[in-house]
């Protein structure tokens, strides 16, 4: 039983046996970059990456502890900028304790001389509003 004759051809060229030439595309400017990227991605040492992440977390915790030792108007501004940067980067969940302690200190601090800066005032307002 021949099944090929019972199936109709899908287009006229196939029925006549004419082979269409393939399009002659220019080579990509990327070459085999992405193929090699996939191969190198498998060679990443995840333990080394995790170690680097932990080292960077400790560095940020050190930044928090340094800013809490000497507390003046400039330090308050630096702390607020640090908290703001961590929130904007989406990393604040790693440092929730430190951020809540800093927000409590910022809330209780007197911002003499720094309150003239509109950016600092608005940043303080936003951080304290979001932290509550």
Automatic annotation (TrEMBL):
Pfam families assigned to the protein according to its UniProt record, in alphabetical order: Terpene_synth
Keywords on record: Lyase, Magnesium
Source taxon at top rank: Eukaryota
An example Gene Ontology molecular-function term: terpene synthase activity
Listed transmembrane segments: none
Residue span, Terpene synthase N-terminal domain: 29-130
GO BP of this protein: terpenoid biosynthetic process
Alphabetical list of PANTHER family matching this protein: ALPHA-HUMULENE_(-)-(E)-BETA-CARYOPHYLLENE SYNTHASE, OS04G0344100 PROTEIN-RELATED
Identification of the protein by name: Terpene synthase N-terminal domain-containing protein
